Structure formats: structure tokens, C-alpha cells
Amino acid sequence: DAGITQSPRYKITETGRQVTLMCHQTWSHSYMFWYRQDLGHGLRLIYYSAAADITDKGEVPDGYVVSRSKTENFPLTLESATRSQTSVYFCASRPSGPGINEQFFGPGTRLTVL
Amino acid sequence: GENVEQHPSTLSVQEGDSAVIKCTYSDSASNYFPWYKQELGKRPQLIIDIRSNVGEKKDQRIAVTLNKTAKHFSLHITETQPEDSAVYFCPERSHRNQAGTALIFGKGTTLSVSS
């Protein structure tokens, strides 16, 4: 049982390039999330999804695109990467239902934009 | 986070001492209060949580207390050990979106335990 995985774990790209970060979970959790973590800013929510084909903006959505065609996958795309998007990106998932609130995080992807 | 204030932002203690981190919230309807721990280079993980119908919950050396009147909840770590060194977060549900299911984490508290 792999749980929640992210790929790649490390990525170096150049300004202006398109980059897609993958997130896959094997629990069939309804909710999935993307966060970025930067020194001095903590963890900030980029986008989230309540189910397949349902997504919504978080705190810092500009410059990012998400999709959720299948419950288990939630890719995050940087359409034209900028240096300010250098960060560690965490994907997370959580099951739906009352009283179930623990959120499970993936191992993270460290992205460097040169 | 949107409606949660966490204090202090950094905390340094000697091994064996106690550590307390406090979060103040503004939404009276809040009913779930989790604490996440993130060790250096690792992912955040839930360590303890409490619901609004409970005043205190303990799990070995950690405990969470809730004061609904004052709208704050605290994480207590007793007999601290070097492995308690981490960033601790008290996220709250976002009310920005209609579903209100996303957790907003904020900057957290960096705890350093020196031996």
C-alpha cells in the first residue's frame, strides 16, 4: 500500500518552461490538496479538490493549474514557471465523511526554477 | 492561517523541560482542533487532535487543551526530547470556499530542544 506518492521528488527547470507535478493516492480519498512551503511563509494552500472534476482555489493559486479527471490523481501544472515558484510542494489527501479530518501528506517535491 | 494566530513563532527549551504552544481562533463555529508536526525535511503529520465537546486530550507526553470561552487551544509537550524538535502547526478549516474543507496551516511554531 503506497498511500500517497509524489513525482518527481526533485525537479530543476528554467523560467518559462511548463512543469507538471504528479500526485497519486491509493486510498480513494475524496479530497486532495496542493500546498507550497517556503521559508518565512509556512505552508500555503494552492488548490484543492473535493472530488473528480471539482477543484477550487486556495490562498495562492496564481500561476498554477490543476485537474482531477480521476479520483486517485491530482496533478499540478506550472504553465510558465517563474523563479518565485521555487519551493517545496506537498500534495495531501483526506477522506470525506463526518468526523474524519486527518489529512495525509505526500513526501513532497522540491522544485527549483532557474 | 486565515483565522488562527499561533504563538510563539519560535521556542527553545532544554531537554526535559515542558513546551507549550498556543493557538487563538476567531470562528465560534470551529469544532475541530488538530496539531501537526513537521520534522526537518519530512512531511507534516497529525500528532493529536481534539473536538469541541472535549476539554483535554492526552497521548503519552503530548496533550491538547481547549478553552472555548477564550477561543484558544494549546499543545503541551512534557519531558521534551531532541526528537520533539520540529515545526508545529495548528491549522484551521478555510471558510473562503463553499465546501470549507481545506485546512489552512500558516507559519507554525519552530520548537528546538537542546540536550
How are the SSEs placed, and which strands pair?
The complex is a heterodimer of chains A (114) and B (115).
Chain A: E1 4-7, E2 10-13, E3 19-25, E4 31-38, E5 42-51, E6 54-57, E7 64-66, E8 76-78, E9 87-94, E10 104-105, E11 109-113
Parallel strand pairs in A: 2-11
Antiparallel strand pairs in A: 1-3, 3-8, 4-5, 4-9, 5-6, 7-8, 9-10, 9-11
Chain B: E1 4-7, E2 10-14, E3 19-25, E4 32-38, E5 45-51, E6 56-59, E7 62-67, E8 72-77, E9 86-89, E10 92-93, E11 103-104, E12 109-114
Parallel strand pairs in B: 2-12
Antiparallel strand pairs in B: 1-3, 3-8, 4-5, 4-9, 6-7, 7-8, 9-12, 10-11
Question: Could you characterize the architecture of this molecule?
Answer:
The complex is a heterodimer of chains A (114) and B (115). In chain A, strands 2, 4, 5, 6, 9, 10 and 11 form a seven-stranded mixed beta sheet that branches. Chain A has a four-stranded antiparallel beta sheet with strand order 1-3-8-7, with no helix packed on it. Chain A has strands at 4-7, 10-13, 19-25, 31-38, 42-51, 54-57, 64-66, 76-78, 87-94, 104-105, 109-113. In chain A, a hairpin with a 3-residue loop joins strand 4 (31-38) and strand 5 (42-51). Chain A is mostly beta strands and 114 residues long. The radius of gyration of chain A is 13 Å and the shape is globular. Chain B contains no helices and twelve strands. Chain B is globular. Classes of the chains: A mainly beta (114), B mainly beta (115).
Give me a quick take on this structure.
The complex is a heterodimer of chains A (114) and B (115). Chain A has 114 residues and is mostly beta strands.
How many DSSP H or I helices of chain A?
Answer: 0
What is the helix/strand order of chain B? EEEEEEEEEEEE
Helix percent band of chain A = under 10%
Rounded to the nearest angstrom, the radius of gyration of chain A is: 13 Å
Number of helices of chain B: 0
